[in-house]
Amino acid sequence: MTVNCRSFQNSYLMKPTIISKTCTLPDGRQITLETGKLARQADGAVVLRMGNTMLLATVVASVNAKEGIDFLPLSVDYQEKFASTGKIPGGFLKREGRLSDYEILISRLVDRAIRPLFPDDYHAETQVNIQLISGDPAALPDSLAAFAASAALAVSDIPFQGPISEVRVIRLDGQFIISPTLEQKEKADLDFIVAASIENILMVEGECKEINEEDMLTALKLAHDVIKTQCQVQIELMQAAGKTEKRTYEHEVKDEAFKEELFKVLYDKVYDVARQQLANKHSRSELFGKIYDDYIASLPEDTTVNKDLVKKYYKDIQKAACRNLVLNEKVRLDGRKTNEIRPIWSEVDYLPSAHGSALFTRGETQSLSTVTLGTKLDEQMIDGAMFEGSSKFILHYNFPGFSTGEVKPNRGPGRREVGHGNLAMRALKGVLPNLQEGPYTIRLVSDILESNGSSSMATVCAGSLALMDAGIKISAPVSGIAMGMISDSKTKKYAILSDILGDEDHLGDMDFKVTGTEKGITACQMDLKVDGLTYDVLKEALDQAKEGRLHILNEMKKTITTPNAELKPHAPRAVTIVIEKDLIGAVIGPGGKVVQEIQKTTGATIVIEEVGNKGIVNIFANNQEVMDAAVRRVKNIVAVPEVDQVYDGVVKSIMPFGAFVEFMPGKDGLLHISEIKWERLETMDGVMEVGEQVKVKLVEVDKKTGKFRLSRKVLLPKPPRKEEAPSA
User: Fold this and answer.
1) CA neighbor of 130 nearest in space, from 143, 115, 139, 117
2) pLDDT of residue 1 exceeding 60
């Protein structure tokens, strides 16, 4: 048989068959999905376009799973090309590098939305890539990434129980808006990204300004209505592309009869351990592990039992027993009621050298948080394709291996650390004083020292306490709580759990984190692992979360109620001086000579920037003496000379007709020979010396020339008049 290569090449290189579908947003704007033009060797590829924003999403999956893999090796990467907005990357290499924190956060949004919808027994390595190839601030790409990824999966043969989509919903001036512009987003008091299928909400991520629970539910419902339309258009695209049939796979060895037998042998033993209600997770794990070890030890040496299957099915037995304990007896693994919060204790000012510190412990979860105050020079620079600028509030979250009693190499923050830190940052930033007007850069670091669930919420609580300890005037303290849920679709039983353990997170159907003040919610993050969460159940979870949040806030108040009145003695002091725009150059001096000299002689740090039509001079010092000296120098430079005011001057030069005296930095005035003394002087010889300090009064500013006329004699006692001689 002869194959005509030329014919094959020509057919492949022919103009592609392009399939596109369009959906419309409530305000009339359109989103288009297109497949068949780009990246045709991927298993699925879609270009999503809204306005001038374009995303290319591709998916590729291995046909077979690697040996020994019993999970889904899914990787999701979102990257913004700098060329998409006509920019050249910064740095030495001038090319896109490792993903930024912002790109990691978007990758996590997509991952969390799609991961639950792959079949449980599907273990083939799967890769999702989303690239921003054209950017437009009027159509923000972060909330469109999951839409594009789901569409790419829809036009592939990869098993995926979607479609899903994501939308951003904000509230501006009391009105809800879907897919806002960047300008609208910045002014909103509510900003959520919501992911959902046609039937159910899957994920929520966002921040808000102390809103109530009803407003949050309203936002979610509006977002879900739009998502249903976007899911439907993906179904139409999939049908048009002829990808309704997905690939078959067999990634797991199964033995249902053996599974049933193992359940009969081990389930009751596992259930009995769960019923012991042990608060210590290590003790509980040891008892669960002993049941498994004893069973393995009981097997004969020549057994044909597949031990890998035993391990897999034992996990299923553990999960089933722990879930049934909650559903049937309303008893949790550590003995708490469903709405009960673990014991809490906290402490502030724990670290004597930090600018602010707090230790927050809830059950077996503990955060040590620190606050450091810096200058504008310490701001975090942001250089991205869509955004650039700086941030004056930085929050870092660290999760070392010892916090869970594990040996784990320290390789820097992973995606989980970035995501948890961002959630805590969003929870707290709304209660900070106006950072744009404030002089300080604030870095808050949470080091997790123990972890058994909800360490991100411990970060929020510890961070709030540390900010108050540092003397940062937050508007209100913020607490956070992680909610969980266990449900059974067959019996319709469910239980909502407050302040979940790590084990309850793994075996549960929901992870719902909520932060807020006494007034309302400031941030939230929700991930659902089960279908069928109704809005009634979601409202119940929100109400129970509010109850828990307020309890935690009351416990925090036992430690500190309001921000400290003063900064720590060793914290840098800051003074802001607003000057006229045209005086900025005088403070800086030629080549920075003046400001550098002030910093060198006083020990202060001075940062000058132009904001609007004004100059902002921020002065930082470690003690009051240094601060006073620096402030005095700057004020002298920018001060406007006032007639009739007395100044301490220095003689700069001597002329036959008088002396020129520098009475303010950079400002000289003429002290005429007639204004030195009341007595008449015929010459300047021996009267004054260059460098001599002299007190003078500004008596006149020439309206035409702007020159200054000084006087010394008016500050001296006037001699008495000589009496006239009597007439003859």
Assistant:
1) 143
2) no
CA dihedral 528, 532, 535, 536 (to 10 degrees): -110
Nearest to 503 by CA among 640, 315, 314, 301: 315
Question: Helices in 132-195 by DSSP H: which ranges?
Answer: 145-154, 182-187
β-pair partners for 668 = 662
Helix ranges restricted to H, 559-606? 584-588, 593-602
Q: Which residue is it, tokens 């430690």?
A: 559
Spatial distance between the Cα atoms of 234 and 22, rounded to a whole number of angstroms = 9
Q: From 204, 56, 37, select the one nearest 133 (Cα to Cα).
A: 56
Q: Using alpha carbons, list the distances in angstroms from residue 61 to 33, 56, 159, 589.
A: 21, 17, 10, 62
Residue 561 has which token pair? Answer: 């109620």
431-483 residue pLDDT tens = 999 876 678 899 999 999 999 988 999 999 999 999 999 999 999 999 999 99
- Output the pLDDT for position 723: 59
Would you call 239 exposed, middle or buried from its count of C-beta atoms within 10 A (0-12, 13-18, 19+)?
Answer: middle
Q: How far apart are CA 392 and CA 439, in angstroms?
A: 9
Predicted TM-score (pTM) of the model is 0.84
Domains of the chain: 5-241 (3.30.230.70), 258-329 (1.10.10), 344-557 (3.30.230.70), 573-638 (3.30.1370.10), 646-715 (2.40.50.140)
DSSP-derived 3-state class of residue 550: helix
What does the pLDDT look like over 474-506, one tens digit per residue?
999 999 999 999 988 788 888 999 999 988 888
Cβ neighbour number for residue 271 with a 10 Å cutoff = 17
Angle between helices 281-298 and 256-275 (to 10 degrees): 140
Q: What is the pLDDT of residues 595-621, one digit of tens each?
A: 999 999 998 899 888 888 888 888 998
Answer yes or no: is pLDDT of 8 > 90: no
